[in-house]
Specification:
This protein is an alpha+beta fold. It is built from six helices and 14 strands.
């Protein structure tokens, strides 16, 4: 029954877009326990293999958006920790039969994502997979070298520069850096977290679209940094 609903939903998206938002669509798919989504990549955990005392390999069955969103040897896994979605990058590969993604998880000190994936993830759970950006940051804002999976964000009103993870929404990354931006729904609907981009590129984690137009609003709850940024925050 669930697979039939998912198949019908895929064929009907062109009609559904006139009566339901992508966020609402994804919400109801999750409520039904499905991994189908409008444009995001969700995956179901089909196996958990303990490899070391502090390491596991998760076998994941992703939805149809994997090929479009996930490329390269790493992907970011997003889980909910204390009411917030947080993502971390991990190495992945295909299973021997090519049916599943296999993600290697190792415990990292002070990392709530690896801890939750190790301790609380079970077969049947659903996680979200995000691209793990490997783009080199452009030489703007700051001359310091940063890791390839991080970006520098300059907050003009606060006069602060913080380093953020590219695989995490700007809202969550800024919160982890000790910044407390205004927010509401955390789902890209209410626009309370929206701020103006002064320079730099962001990627919408729902649609997958990137933008670098100065002066445009950025909903930081559903956008991640694709380069160094300057925001009116």
């Amino acid at each position: 029954m669930k697979s039939a609903i998912a198949a019908l939903s895929v064929r009907s998206q062109s009609l559904l877009q006139h009566v339901i938002s992508a966020e609402q669509y994804d919400f109801w798919m999750r409520q039904m326990g499905l991994i189908e989504a409008w444009s995001r990549c969700f995956a179901r955990v089909v196996a958990v293999a303990q490899t070391t005392p502090d390491g596991v390999v998760l076998s994941l069955k992703p939805n149809r958006h994997q090929r479009r969103l996930i490329a390269g040897p790493r992907c970011a896994v997003s889980v909910e920790v204390a009411g917030r979605n947080i993502a971390r990058s991990f190495v992945w590969s295909n299973s021997e039969d090519g049916r599943y993604m296999q993600v290697s998880i190792s415990r990292q000190a002070a990392d709530p994502v690896s801890r939750q994936l190790l301790e609380d993830t079970a077969v049947g759970d659903i996680v979200e997979l995000l691209p793990a950006s490997g783009d080199s940051p452009p030489p703007t804002l700051d001359a310091r070298s940063v890791a390839p999976d991080t970006a520098l964000v300059y907050l003009r009103r606060s006069e602060k520069t913080v380093s953020v993870t590219r695989g995490t929404s700007l809202l969550e990354a800024l919160e982890l850096a000790g910044v407390k931006p205004t927010y509401g729904c955390r789902r890209g609907i209410c626009n309370r977290c929206s701020c103006t981009r002064i320079q730099g590129q962001t990627t919408d984690m729902v649609s997958g679209e990137s933008s670098d137009e100065p002066g445009h609003p950025v909903r930081i709850c559903i956008n991640r940094a694709s380069s160094d940024l300057e925001l009116d925050l």
